[in-house]
Each structure stands twice: as C-alpha cells, then as structure tokens.
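Dear colleague,

Thank you for sharing your sequence with our group. We've completed the structure prediction you requested, and as agreed, I am returning the results in plain text so they can be pasted directly into your records. Please verify that the sequence below matches your submission; if there's any discrepancy, let me know and we will rerun it promptly.
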Amino acid sequence: MHRLRGWPLLLILFSSVPARAGADELWAGHQILIGHRKLPILGLLETRTESFHLARVERHGDRLLLHQRTCRMEVAPVAGVHVRFLPEGVLRMPPSLIPYARRGERWEGGPWITEWGEEDVDGDGNPGATLVVEAPICGGTLHVGAASHASTKATEKSGGLEGEMRATVRHRLLGASSGCLRLAARDSEETVAGTFAYVPVPADATCESLLAGSWPVRAPEPLSTRPASSRRPTPRLR
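Please find the predicted structure tokens below.
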C-alpha cells in the first residue's frame, strides 16, 4: 500500500489572518508547486499542484500587502491516487496575508507562516481541512492539520508580479474515514518549490466570475526540482 505523502504541498495556501478593507488593487494569481516523495517500490515521484488566487493589494511605498484567498486547486494524480480538497471548502478557507518588500529591482515576499490544527477551517463540520482521496484500493476522506513556512522572490510584470516560491510544509493527520487510510497516510514534512504570477483584474471580479471564463494569468512552467542525487545521467550519443 502506498503512503499518501504527495499532498502536503496543498497546505501552504491558507492562514487565519482576516483581510482588511481598503485595498487599492485586485490581482488574479496562478501558482504551480512541485515536490518529490519517495514511495515504496515506485521510487521517487513528482507531485504537482496548481492553485488559482484572488488577492486584494495594498501599496505602501516599497512595500505591498496581499490579502489572498484561494479560488481553486488542481492536484495531479500520483501513482493512480487522486487527492483534492472539497471545492466549497477551498472557497471558505480564511485568506492569507503576504507581505512584500522591494529589494532593488526585485520584490521579496514573506517569509510567512501558515498554521492550523483541529479547528474546522473549511466549514464542513470536521476537524482541520478535509481531503478527498480517490484510489483503486484505498479511498475516502482525510482530515488534516498543517504548518508551513513560505517565501517568494519576484519581479514586476504586466502590472503585477511574476516569480518563484519555496516552502517547507508539515502536516498532521487528525482523522480518516477508514482504517485503510489511517494506515496509508501519516504525518510528514516536505519541501516544495515552484512559480507564480499575478495580473490586475477589474475591481468587481470574484472567484466565481473569473472561474467561469478563462483564468487571466498563467505562471511560467517550473523547472524540475528533482534532487540532483536522484537524477540519472543523460546517456551520450555515439
């Protein structure tokens, strides 16, 4: 049975800090995060999560403050296992508060900490955040707590930002719908990295209105973060 270790990177996207009124811009964001987990028999596998954000932006000279909420997440299956948050739960998650400071020609975000325990952060009546697991042998739901430490570096582009993100994520299993999942999932830690991009959108835009059409921004495709020690040498052509 494969350990379900490929999904901690999902958990860096939320915090319990409430958004404030008075933001002077609205940005749509897209983020791609890549991680790697070693599974029995299968070896090292790549994990990938795409997330779509809406952020209210406050400008304070050489500083920005983003009040960000997540609109949707798409998780690539790993070894035939599909993992997803409840769609309605994602929209209920409290926003993240992300500070940026200008450093020359670049902007640096964070570091910021996101953490939750047994509180029901997605409003479904269960502790923590609920994940739905679809697998050929062992499926059901998991309830998880999380803690993450994240930072970004970016440059200005198209009126917004584009850059790279890195985070360390720890998650804790709070409950599972079956004994099979309780055995397959466990507490873990993972380092993930990837890319993101933001562009301005109309002030009356919402998650629902943007998701109904074509999302207005796409992050650059990240380079593989596969550890160098695990890469096979490229064969030479004769």
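Summary note from our side: Residues 135 and 174 are 20 Å apart (CA to CA).

Kind regards,
the structure core
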